[in-house]
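Entry 12.
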Amino acid sequence: MNVPPSGPPAPESRKGLPLRDIRLASGLILGAFLVSHFANHALGLVSVEAMEAARQWFNRLWRNPAGTALLYGALATHFALALDALFRRRTLRMPPREAAQLVLGLSLPFLLVAHVVGTRVEFSVTGREVGYPDVIRNLWVLSPENGARQALALVIAWLHGCLGVYFWLRVKPWFRQWTPLLYAGALLLPVLALLGFAEAGKEIAADPDRFTFLPPRNDPTVDGIRAALMGGFTALIAGVFAARGLRSYRTLSTRVRIAYPGDRTAVVPRGFTVLEASRLMDIPHPSACGGRGRCSTCRVRIVEGLEGQPRPTPQEQATLTRIGAGPDIRLACQLRPTRDIAVVPVLSTHQPGLVASLGGSRQTGGRERELAVLFCDLRGFTRFSEDRLPFDTVFLLNRYFEIVGHAVEQSGGHLDKFIGDGALALFGLNASPEDAARQAFEAALRIVEGVRQLSDAHATELDRPLAVVVSLHAGPAILGEMGYGQASGLTAVGDTINVASRLESVAKERDVELVISAELAQRARLDLAAHERQTVTVRGRAMPVDAWIVRSAARAVQ
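Predicted 3D structure (tokens):
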């Protein structure tokens, strides 16, 4: 059982508010508004009349009382939480993508206020409804510089939203598979919207007499609202930076020391996270989710100063529980030390003391992939080799390795390594998870059949037939080049690999040829109803695994 460190709960834990989830939900609502708005713009490629007709449906969706409350509520909530996140951030040092999202988000109000006031606010105050012909005429013909500014604002809003969605989804196991489609959609929609806007502008400029335009009108109330909004946004953002400066001044006397491997130390005001301290001191520290507590790549092991630190927030605790972390493991992006502490980044890509003592080594970062994993092993081969000359054993082993290698390669997999008379193969490096599962199953059948033929060919020399056991499993794993010098190579690590290895032991214990996890069977769409399905307790893993027990591989394809 994981026992959280003692000490007061973190502020977010006391509130019990899932602020990140609320910010995400409000951002998704604003994203939905942008998608529908861009789609309406894109109809300009058809005609101005098509844009105006679609606007009526757009207004029914977003200008009814519920839609208006949802939209403006999401806008106010998202902006307020963004200011809150900016205030909570202890350092403005951050990766370029996070900095881009922050700068784009803060610039949006000043680019969009004029457009929002001229359409939504003016309608609410005066009842004067401005249609697409008037808007496009004003932005394309009468004031093209405003049109360029509004086009830039929409692009910035879209980029800001896309970065937010990217930070949200990039830790999902399926994200890499869907990246090309998501990227194409993210690129195509704003391009079509801008082309539609330009085409509509040219259509109105070429024949303005086709359209009815509202007479120009200046309303002091509307102008006052515009100026007030600009001033209000400026004051809010300036207020946050002023509050940050005041907090930094007040915390000068309440600093904590964070010690890292290699005799590196960060002295930061109390309230900094360990990840922020690492960035402040330019200490390499991975963080796949952008410091949002949605992954565990930034986790650290606390070697000194564990007692008295803030307890994990609910989000941090959920992540730590998922990876089975011990009480001395914390997420660097969530832990805000209240006293001096010494930490070791678990997935650090750079350990100065160790690397220097070894003369340096090349490190290659891993990436998460959905893989299908195959483990196979010869039954009783150790006892067999005791009764044979070493050269005879080597000859037979090489024939077996050849069978396994050909089976894996012909099925589209990657032969990771041989371990004694066992082998590990990976599938899915260049295939979808479903194809990878089918490839692994095909390779297993080929291995079993190949070993049977090898046993028949050497039956006169064997006391008993050769037998092989194979286990198959599928799931996420970290894929990368690991090792040192000439001993490095492409391999994978993670719970999926461990489960596949343990299932091989289950196959040996039950004296069967195949053990296939239910996850792989589902992905490969295997019909294994004729075989036994068991919930297997896997050594070293708290959660059991559903698996199919296949006594004879030949029966698996019947």
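Annotation: The chain has a mean pLDDT of 79. Residues 175-206 form the longest helix (32 residues).
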